[in-house]
Amino acid sequence: MHEDLITIGELSARTRLSPKALRLYGDRGLLAPARVDPGTGVRRYGLAQVERARRIALLRAVGMPLARIAAVLDADADTAPHLLDAYWREQESSHLARREAVGYARAVLTGRGSTMYRIAEREVPEQKVLCLRGRVTAAGLVEFIGGASESLLAHLGSTGACLSGPIFTVFHGHVSEESDGPVEVCAPTLNAVEPAGRIAVRIHPAHREAYTELTAQKRDFSAMAAVHDAVGAWVAEQGYERSGGNREVYYPNFMTAEPHEHTSDVTVPFRPRG
Question: What are the tens digits of pLDDT across the range 96-118?
Answer without folding.
Answer: 777 877 888 888 888 776 567 89
